[in-house]
Amino acid sequence: MITAEALHKHYGDKVAVDDLSFEVRPGTVTGFLGPNGAGKSTTMRLMLDLDHGGGVTLFDGRRFSAIRHPAREIGAVLEAKAFHPTRSARDHLRMLAAGSGIPASRADEVLELVGLAEVKRKKPDGFSLGMAQRLGLAQALLGDPPTLILDEPANGLDPHGIHWLRDVLRSLAAEGRTIFVSSHLLSEMSLMADDLVVIGRGAMIYNGDVDGFVREFTRSTVLVRSPHADRLADALRGLGGVTVDLLGGELRVSGVDVDEVGEIAFRHNVMLRELTAETASLEAAFITATEAVEEYVGGVA
Ligand SMILES: Nc1ncnc2c1ncn2[C@@H]1O[C@H](COP(=O)(O)OP(=O)(O)OP(=O)(O)O)[C@@H](O)[C@H]1O
């Protein structure tokens, strides 16, 4: 269990992390989301005592700096490509293993796990970003830690790599580990994460499960196809609090659920060809939740 309490950091007048408190539960993947510059990397650095600021983060009740063998308790990747320039991938991991009292054979195990066994004798400075991400994950897993903190681990991975990463993180969580992972890939996050911490301009926007976030920041809609769509639209508009978009024989309705739409159609003798509850995406919820706090807003060319 990770407990972050009142994390705070400012650079001059600029508040990068603004009194953030949250918990990351074991056995789950918790996604850490926020627009560019929201403060995700700074928060992760604060959590690991790699940056000076306010607040405390406890890992199963202890601060990072109080943990005797951090590699065996917390695996962290904050920056891809932070490797020794002259050692091979394998030697890099063996050296880290030696420093943490981990058997050297574990280096080969984790390289196999992340799919880098074939290139283990190569120097990481020739690695692609995706390969470097895999090596970063190997490094984080070296001590078989119960907690993982990963900043943008999917960055640079190809679609197979992203799929693989999702499976690895999900199965590590299923083993009871605590996994805190930032990403900009929202569709991936919706498949991977159980819980979310969403921040904007350093402050908390949402902390809870993924479904709750989508519910809170989107309106669910009902899609209806009917040869009498205009008649049904009139009946639904008469209800009040209902929004109806009519396009040809298709209606998109919000403010009522599928059962109510079905009932009203029945009462008005309207034949239906389709009646579907549409779930909004995590991306739609993220855009609504964070549009007011976006820092770097581009224009349209
Ligand atoms: N060393 C620094 N000096 C001054 N300001 C900084 C420094 N590091 C970060 N910041 C500012 O703090 C804020 C948070 O940055 P941070 O890198 O934590 O955001 P982020 O959410 O990780 O962004 P991204 O998604 O783009 O990686 C940003 O506005 C950034 O400009």
Automatic annotation (TrEMBL):
Xref: Gene3D superfamilies: P-loop containing nucleotide triphosphate hydrolases
PROSITE patterns tied to this protein: ABC_TRANSPORTER_1 (PS00211), ABC_TRANSPORTER_2 (PS50893)
Domain ABC transporter residues, every copy: 2-226
Higher taxonomy: Bacteria, Bacillati, Actinomycetota, Actinomycetes, Pseudonocardiales
Name used for this protein in its record: ABC-2 type transport system ATP-binding protein
This protein's UniProt keywords: ATP-binding, Nucleotide-binding, Transport
Pfam families assigned: ABC_tran
Keyword field contains Glycoprotein: no
Keyword ATP-binding (UniProt): yes
Annotated GO MF terms: ATP binding; ATP hydrolysis activity
